[in-house]
């Protein structure tokens, strides 16, 4: 087990009716909020009204920045920075999923920086400061509500890049599982695959394979995600399943999932980010396509040990091949695509996708050749 330092400053307020607490929390940091949200789901399910009422009661003025796209884009984030500056916003509030939260993080950092926002993503500048950020989560998936990363797509260059910095940890995140009851079944599935993938990345790329506690945290969270998803898809009003899913997904990428592993890599994410940058597919859908193919590559390169351990603990199977099949069967059963062709991505595009992946893996310091990336993508065709 490797040395680590763990510090996660985000305050989580979890449970039914907790959006009412947002205003009091946010008013400790500011009085004028940029409210960042997506295409309107929060207006249909009551989240917008609950957020507005809580902020108004706390005397917070709101400037709206709506229309965040799933896979949020740079041009819209830049507009948000401009709006925050022109209106003198002193806090940023995101209401929605990873996309709204990530764009809100980018805006919060951009508003405290004199250069261009993309500098953080291209690596030209580090994030030193950001406006205080608060979130109301409506989809369990990314863990963005309790981590310090964000992902933005530069539409001009087709680069989907990430930026990180401790200033991006939300001050407070409100997790009310009832807000997730309006999620379409497809988004439930994509969120579940994404949450599971965050556990898989660390577990399979760890250089230290003797970390009992983190392996067991991974097994437990993975089983919880799978069991919760099954119950949610059977009964979307199952509050306890929604609650378990929401908290599991948050813990799957709040730092806890890789403590003691030493260096880990996000190779499946690197490949997926090119799929969503080039084809605008949902992040979880792209991961469901990439992971079984990458598992096959991992088995050939690193042997069966980790796949066997994961499969036994999570799916109750014995061999590495059975683990790969069980993962693929699970993703397919809950409604995620498992092949490039399921997402209408033609195999002839594989060289173009691999080219795009190389840009991100060199930035993330992941040591894969282009031939390896193409071979993984061919396994996903
Ligand atoms: O835009 P609206 O109308 O809100 O609709 C959204 C969107 O269409 C809808 N939705 C969300 N909550 C809902 C709802 N519909 C009904 N009821 C609700 N309660 O769901 C759709 C997807 O939302 P989105 O925010 O895009 O999903 P997700 O949370 O999966 O976020 C994906 C983005 O986060 C990035 C991904 O790459 C992608 O860009 N990631 C961020 C990470 C991070 N910051 O730590 C890590 C992840 O690995 C990931 O890369
Ligand atoms: Zn992810």
Key descriptive features of the protein:
Rossmann fold; globular; 8 strands; binds 5,6-dihydroxy-NADP; 381 residues; Dehydroquinate synthase-like, alpha domain; binds zinc ion; alpha/beta; two-stranded antiparallel ribbon
Would you kindly provide a brief summary of this structure?
The protein is α/β, with parallel strands linked by helices and about 375 residues long. Helix content is about 50%, strand content about 10%.
General description of the model:
There is one protein chain. The protein is an alpha/beta fold and 381 residues long. The chain has helices spanning 22-26, 41-44, 47-57, 74-86, 98-110, 118-122, 185-205, 212-234, 239-251, 267-279, 283-302, 305-315, 320-334, 350-364, 370-379; strands at residues 11-14, 32-37, 61-65, 91-96, 133-137, 149-154, 159-164, 172-175. The protein has two domains: 11-178, Rossmann fold; 183-379, Dehydroquinate synthase-like, alpha domain, CATH 1.20.1090.10. Strands 1-8-5-4-2-3 form a six-stranded parallel beta sheet, with helices on both faces. The protein has a two-stranded antiparallel ribbon with strand order 6-7. Strand 6 (149-154) and strand 7 form a beta hairpin. Helix 7 (185-205) runs parallel beside helix 11 (283-302), helix 11 packs antiparallel against helix 13 and helix 11 crosses helix 15 (370-379). The relative contact order is 0.11. It binds 5,6-dihydroxy-NADP and zinc ion (ZN). Residues 38-42, 45, 70-71, 96-100, 102, 138-139, 141-144, 147, 149-151, 179-180, 182-183, 187, 191, 194, 253, 269, 283-284 line the site of 5,6-dihydroxy-NADP (NZQ). Residues 38-42, 45, 70-71, 96-100, 102, 138-139, 141-144, 147, 149-151, 179-180, 182-183, 187, 191, 194, 253, 269, 283-284 line the site of 5,6-dihydroxy-NADP.
